[in-house]
Amino acid sequence: MTDPIADYLTRIRNAIMAKHKVVEIPASNLKKDITKILHDQGYILNYKFIDDKIQGIIKIALKYNAETKLPAIKSIKRISRPGLRKYARKDNIPRVLNGLGVAILSTSKGVMTDKDARKQSVGGEILCFVH
After folding, report:
1. pLDDT at position 90, please?
2. What mean pLDDT is predicted for residues 60-76?
3. Which of 5, 9, 113, 119 is 20 to 30 A away from residue 75, measured at CA?
4. Are 72 and 16 in contact (CB under 8 A)?
5. What is the number of other CB atoms lying within 10 angstroms of the CB of residue 33?
6. Percent of the chain that is helix, strand, coil (3-state, to 5)
7. pLDDT at position 116, please?
8. Contact between 25 and 34 (Cβ < 8 Å)
9. Buried b (16+ CB within 10 A) or exposed e, 93-110
10. If DSSP codes are grouped into helix, strand and coil, which group holds residue 46?
11. 31: closest CA among 52, 54, 53, 10?
């Protein structure tokens, strides 16, 4: 697999389109960090890391609105990819939907949201946009 982050995002996107409640994804440390951010920002209901002595699995419970049955994640898009990396300096970190969405960045201080990166005054690679 050439781009495991794109695979992670595609599995979530496909599960949402198919109205699944839970999606299982092969684990890595970067995927675990992205999952924690999605949970902290309220885009997923819950998550669980399962150690199967090989690679591990991330079980993600997707979040839907109780009345309208619409998913919490409307759009999840990969920005930086292996063929074309996208980096942002601390002073030009992009805003998603003028602050309504979240950009997830991989920085020298770890994986964080665009708001946290601005607070800590650090730039990095823009992994994805979520709203």
Report:
1. 95
2. 96
3. 119
4. no
5. 16
6. 25, 35, 40
7. 98
8. no
9. beebeeeebbbbbbbeee
10. strand
11. 10
Cβ proximity of 66 and 72 under 8 Å = no
The residue type found at 14 is N
- Amino acid of residue 47: Y
To 10 degrees, the CA torsion angle through 26, 27, 31, 37? Answer: 110
Measured CA to CA, the distance from residue 86 to residue 110 in angstroms comes to 16
| Confidence band of 1 (pLDDT split at 50, 70, 90) | confident
Distance CA 103, CA 79 (A): 9
Q: How far is the C-alpha of 97 from the C-alpha of 79, rounded, in Å? A: 15
Burial of 67 (0-12, 13-18, 19+ CB in 10 A): exposed
> If 0-12 CB within 10 Å is exposed, 13-18 middle and 19+ buried, where does residue 121 land?
exposed
